[in-house]
Amino acid sequence: MLVSRFKGREIPAAYRILARNPVLLMKFAEFRDEIMANGKLDPILKEKIAVKVSTVNECNPCYVSHKRKLEMSGRSENAEDEKGSAALRFAELAAMNRGKVSDEVFAELIKHFSEDEVL
Length: 119
Description:
Blueprint: H1 2-6, H2 13-18, H3 22-37, H4 43-56, H5 60-72, H6 82-96, H7 103-112, H8 115-118
């Protein structure tokens, strides 16, 4: 499963460790895929959000994985517009404050995104 998933790329350490418990690995992969592959939010912006949250949480394996995906797409981790800036600011503050953000920050997010995109 891991070899086909990463298609010749190095398998991240977190996945190699999770592979010791195949049921847990599958649940993690399903959860991750549901978040990153599905939904209304642009996949590139999802990767940028993942990089931002990984930075705040100091999770180097996650940072490297998501940063690599951005680089492979020719994109940087920086916001490209006001919409992206609002998303990255929200993600950073939510990660720093255990999900708590001010009404003002949430209002700024909602100005740029539909409820389906926020979900």
